[in-house]
Amino acid sequence: QRLRTARELVTTERVFVKSMEVLMDVYVTPLSKIASGETILPENQQMPYAAEVLPLIFSNTDLIAALNRRFLTDLQARILEWDAKESSQRLGDLFLQYGPFFKMYSQYVNNH
After folding, report:
1. Which of 27, 28, 77, 106 has its CA 20 to 30 A from that of 34?
2. What is the dihedral of CA 81, 87, 93, 95, to 10 degrees?
3. Among 79, 65, 88, 74, which residue's Cα sits nearest to residue 18?
């Protein structure tokens, strides 16, 4: 039962990390390039307020993505160590370790 729950957590985290990578690749990076002037748009497609609005919309998504990639890596490592001994069948310490960092979601949520 524990292993199945742990694997489900890894699967869910993997999907979330992949979604964050898509968000970064498809939206954040291209729009940031437009906002910084690195990418020039045709006159009829200008985004005059992009530099002011994008940080509000995508506040700390890069940090959230990096955090969850590390969390996923640690979860996967823990599953690989999983064995019949109960002492290695734990995940709570990872949540305690990452808990303070998960607070950065508050800033993101508060902006939306």
Report:
1. 106
2. 70
3. 65
